[in-house]
Design goal:
- This protein has 344 residues and is an alpha/beta fold.
- It has a domain of 215 residues.
- 27% of the residues lie in helices and 16% in strands.
- The protein contains eleven helices and ten strands.
- The strands form two sheets. A six-stranded mixed sheet has the order 1-2-3-4-6-5. Strands 7-8-9-10 form a four-stranded parallel sheet, with helices on both faces.
- α10 links the parallel β9 and β10.
- It is globular and about 55 Å long.
């Protein structure tokens, strides 16, 4: 039986969480340098952040994957079958529901299957809730700097899922923090394949992150990240700060194709934490606010949900609003590729 619908949710791109989120789980030892090259040197289980205590097990027969099996062995993932494998030399991981929902929707997300993390745990719990409701959840990252080169791996994964498993062509995408860069890069190049976009505390403006106060000329109040600013220069082959500032390398620069395609966007942003300080990593005013304004100027539809917290943790205690948003745009049984990429 072929899968009729995909829900792709890309959360943190391959452990690309910034320095403050190095320990997703106590037993995790994922790279946090944002390097795709580092990921390529790791085994599939390590790259996917498997619990070392998890033991490979054959499909139980209760998973919907048994009707259309994925390659390689599966492991238990919080009570569900999860398969890790390579397709077209691209690494994937798929968590399967006990019984697939009508349309067999999928959710795509990037790395961290963390259930206990203070940074990404809530998003994983949302993924698990969707699996309980019958969705498949697929993990596959893009490029941490939002470079077009990262689209090739995402394209390969998309081809595999649609060609080999009958996934629908429309996708819903989701992302966190810096991974919004990879999400919007792929989505803007493939607007006809995107049903909706959800971004949690996502980077919309590189002048804010990784630029921030550390780069002259950004007019930003964000903390910034010198290491990731340098990585951006290297990735794009740019020599000076001025070249980066002038280049179209921010998600807000790539929105026109999505607005033209009528893709709805939901932006969640932290405004304050318990001490009353604003999110100094990816400030709302410099990211979600300007992203929404730019998108609406182009004729697109964007909504912002403000959360009373700082940059972390990502996600909501009550995930119903995001789940309803995703379900709304998969109601026509279109593919939902939720790319929720990396965490800053």
């Amino acid at each position: 039986m072929k899968l009729k619908s995909i829900r792709l949710y890309c959360l943190p791109i391959a452990c690309l969480l910034l320095g403050g989120a190095k320990n997703i789980q106590a037993q995790d030892s994922l790279p946090c340098d944002g390097s795709w090259e580092t990921l390529q040197t790791m085994s599939v289980p390590a790259w996917l952040g498997d619990d070392p205590k998890a033991k490979p097990a054959p499909a139980t027969g209760t998973s919907s994957a048994t009707a259309n099996p994925f390659p390689r062995e599966c492991v238990d993932f919080h009570g569900f079958d999860r398969y890790s494998f390579e397709a077209e030399s691209v690494k994937l991981s798929v968590a399967c529901p006990k019984e697939a929902a009508a349309g067999k929707s999928w959710r795509w997300r990037s790395i961290f299957w963390s259930r206990t993390s203070n940074t990404a745990g809530r998003v994983t719990l949302m993924d698990l809730e969707l699996v309980k409701q019958g969705d498949h959840v697929v993990m596959r990252p893009g490029n941490v700097s939002g470079h077009p080169s990262g689209n090739a791996a995402m394209d390969a994964a998309y081809r595999y899922l649609t060609a080999e498993h009958g996934a629908s062509e429309k996708t819903a995408m989701g992302s966190m923090s810096r991974e919004a860069l990879a999400l919007f890069r792929w989505a803007s190049a493939n607007p006809e394949k995107v049903a909706s976009i959800y971004v949690d505390n996502g980077v919309c403006n590189v002048k804010s992150w990784p630029g921030g106060k550390v780069v002259h000329g950004t007019d930003s109040n964000a903390k910034g990240s010198p290491k990731d600013w340098a990585l951006r220069k290297e990735t794009y082959g740019l020599q000076s700060d001025q070249e980066v500032l002038a280049a179209k390398v921010s998600p807000m620069d790539w929105l026109k194709p999505l607005a033209k395609g009528g893709v709805p966007i939901l932006l969640a942003s932290g405004t304050q934490d318990g001490s009353g300080t604003q999110d100094a990593t990816v400030p709302y005013e410099e990211n979600a606010a300007v992203g929404k304004e730019q998108y609406e100027t182009l004729g697109g539809s964007a909504n912002v949900v403000l959360k009373d917290k700082g940059h972390h943790p990502h996600g909501f205690k009550d995930t119903s609003s995001v789940i309803e948003f995703n379900k709304k745009y998969s109601a026509k049984k279109q593919a939902h590729l939720d790319w929720c990429f990396c965490d800053v």
